[in-house]
Amino acid sequence: MSDHPLDEWLAGIPKIRAAFPTRLLLASIFGDGKAESWQMLAERLGSAGACGFEINACLPNPLSREGVGGDLGQDPDALAQVVAWVREATALPIVVRLSPNVTDILPIAKSAMDAGAEAFIATGSLLAAGGIDPDELAPSPTFDRSRLLGRYRGPGLKPVALRWTAAIAKALPVPLIGSGGIVGWEDAVEFFAVGASAVSVGSGAAWNGIGLIDDLETGLLGYLREHGYRSPSEIRGRALPRIVGFDELDLDHKLIAVVDKELCNGCEVCVRACGDGGFQAITMSEGLAFIDASKCDGCGLCACVCPTNAIRMRDRQSGQQAPS
């Protein structure tokens, strides 16, 4: 969705392709509730040189029916219809940016795939409230004080995007582009590990400048060399076997927190965390954290908050360190 006229984009696409002949260029399109608007965009932008199309299913549903509103990506039938319309107009690849604002993303993705989508971007922005001005008691920021809900993008979106990327990668045979909260090369590695074939950066570049892309590439190449990988494809999906549902967990496997006295600095962060949010199992002894094994429930909160990584979780029976 853009205020720039279509002719401007039609003139710009050949110039972009000429300047970057080895790069793929996807045109992000969005129409109204009629097939003609989607198909016209696909035909004209394809003729101008676009390599494929993104359908942003995070935008409002143009086929909204009574009782069905929200994002296009919240209505599997509407999304499938739009994808089918575009597929009728072009043989070029169709990539759907899925909405995270759902309880289960798989039926949405499956409907789009069956209608002709070849790949997915997981995901887009979360519905959110930007905040309330405490003096005015009105939405902030806003241009219209009667409006409140907006969209959230940025680092806080990453856990949601990772979850949906992993879910799709485990269930559907389709290429994925990971997107949501990527601001460093470590974030890119995480998305590759849960099944992404590539990553997309939006808010990170807006906040940090386009130079972020060079930083990501440099950091990622360094990571690959250090770990003996030749390309990101070698780590794609490596984390998926260890991502399971609650019903697959071994609830008989018990952990216990153990303090490394060499690393503990006596800050008492773990004492407060366990005392107020855990099982009151940690006290101070001779300036160091002490864990009462009879009270420790193995929740891992202390290990999460320890600033020096002095607390590790171990198997209660064998004493072996638990995977982090």
Notes on the protein architecture:
The structure is a single chain. With 324 residues, the chain is an alpha/beta fold. The chain folds into two domains: 237 residues, Aldolase class I (TIM Barrel, Alpha-Beta Barrel); 66 residues, Alpha-Beta Plaits (2-Layer Sandwich), CATH 3.30.70. The chain is 34% helix and 17% strand. The protein contains ten helices and 14 strands. The protein has a six-stranded parallel sheet. Helix 2 links the parallel strand 1 and strand 2. Helix 2 crosses helix 3, helix 3 packs parallel to helix 4 and helix 6 crosses helix 8. The longest helix has 16 residues. It is elongated.
Question: What's the short story on this structure?
Answer:
It is built from 10 helices and 14 strands. The chain is α/β, with parallel strands linked by helices and about 325 residues long. It folds into 2 domains: about 5-240, TIM Barrel, CATH 3.20.20.70; about 250-315, Alpha-Beta Plaits, CATH 3.30.70.
Key words describing this protein structure:
324 residues; alpha/beta; TIM Barrel; Alpha-Beta Plaits; six-stranded parallel β-sheet; two-stranded antiparallel sheet; 14 strands; 34% helix; 17% strand; elongated
- Structural class, by secondary structure, is alpha/beta
Q: What CATH architecture of the largest domain would you give?
A: Alpha-Beta Barrel
How many strands? 14
**What percentage of the residues does DSSP assign to strands (E)?**
15-25%
Number of helices: 10
Topology as H/E string? Answer: HEHEHEHEEEEEHEHEHHEHEEHE
- Major sheet description: 6 strands, parallel
Shape: elongated
User: What integer is the average pLDDT?
Assistant: 91
**Computed Rg:** 24 Å
Q: What is the spatial order of strands in the main beta sheet?
A: 1-2-3-4-9-10
Helical content class = 25-40%
